[in-house]
Amino acid sequence: MSEPEAKAAETDIEEEQLNQAIEDLRGALHDEAAPEGDKAASLRNNAIIMNIPVDVQIMLGSAEMPVSELMALQKGSTVALDRRIGEPVDVVVNGQKIARGEITVLDNDPSRFGVKLTEIITAGKTPR
User: Fold this and answer.
1) ∠ Cα 40 45 49 (to 5°)
2) 10 in helix, strand or coil?
3) Which helix (H) or strand (E) holds 123?
């Protein structure tokens, strides 16, 4: 299977999983068989909701350049971002900024990094 076919198949699987999660959620929300106070039904509904996949992005920065510079990029090229070392990064879920954090190296795998959350953005709070 070629790389584009593999990516298309992976996207189809993710879309199918998301559609299944949405259908499960609809079923849970419209399930009238269980009494309202039934804790088991409530836990089952929560489990369905908690398994819905979301898109989490860490926004390291961005760059603006003319098309000519973009077209000149090649393997090994460096793109300067609009953020400096030590500046906070944004944590975005499904297009909505929910937190800020700082880049950190993972203790158990120094070849990888993660984000240590430093601020959770609440609904009424405007991000800086």
Assistant:
1) 145
2) helix
3) none
Determine contact, residues 77/66, Cβ cutoff 8 Å: no
Exposed, middle or buried, 121 (CB in 10 Å: 0-12/13-18/19+)? middle
Report the predicted TM-score, pTM, of the whole model to 2 decimal places.
Answer: 0.52
**The two three-digit tokens of residue 47, written as one number:** 């489990």
pLDDT in tens, 28-59: 555 544 555 566 777 777 778 888 888 899 98
Q: Where does 56-120 sit in CATH, by number?
A: 2.30.330.10
The sign one gets for the Cα dihedral 76, 80, 86, 87 is negative
Q: Are 118 and 102 in contact (CB under 8 A)?
A: yes
34 DSSP assignment: S
Question: How do residues 80-95 score in pLDDT, each as one tens digit?
Answer: 999 888 889 999 998 8
Neighbours of 100 (CB within 10 A): 19
Domain boundaries, the chain: 3-50, 56-120
